[in-house]
Amino acid sequence: MWKERESLLSKRYNNNKAPSAKSNKKSNITLAIDTEIxxxxxxxxxxxxxxxxxxxxxxxxxxATFYKYVEQDGSLIIxxxxxxxxxxxxxxxxxxxxxxxxxxEIVPFFFLELKTTQTLExxxxxxxxxxxxxxxxxKGYSCHMDKDGxxxxxxxxxxxxxxxRILNAVYTRFIQxxxxxxxxxxxxxxxxxxxxxxxxxxxLDEDPMALRSYKTEQ
Length: 218
Known about the structure:
The chain has seven helices and five strands. The protein has a five-stranded mixed beta sheet with strand order 1-2-4-3-5, covered by helices on one side. Helix 2 packs across helix 3 and helix 5 packs across helix 7 (160-179). The protein folds into two domains: 34-77; 78-218, Muramoyl-pentapeptide Carboxypeptidase, domain 2, CATH 3.30.1380. It is globular and about 50 Å long. It has helices spanning 2-12, 35-47, 52-73, 80-89, 92-114, 120-134, 160-179; strands at 140-145, 151-156, 183-188, 192-197, 215-216. By secondary structure, the chain is of the alpha+beta class. It starts with a helix and ends with a strand.
């Protein structure tokens, strides 16, 4: 069962787990912050229903685990309007190929930087909960167990059916390749899609039924 397996994974990789943004461990430090910045952060935090401390922690997490590398790479941040243009005008197969190649290149680098292992738990935390979410590929992400013990990953975005198909194909392929885990599209809709990870762990090349057909909601 998944819960038992994750418990074993947690014990085995206790010293190699990705750091958690929701950790209860806190350290107190003294910072001198410009009054103008403090006022801006306070207004932003209040508008989001957060404490200024929580907002600062969130900003620091995003910088340390994402924007630091955006700056190093000299990456271009693209407005959502332009993203829609690129999605509509670039061939779907080209999107899938380039996005997949990008993940193959940067994900191992991130895990080396964090000095942690690519377990299922860490892939969910580092790649889906942070890296790709911070990058804007989707707006919402969650995972849960179904009644049969399978893990379902659900993603929400605002870019239409084509983007759902692209991300679904890329993330399914990524999970299969990185973890040798049985994964397949569960559902694809206009603003969301879901991927199922079966609790079965057979190698994909030994299971010709690994990639099951999926239904598409129009």
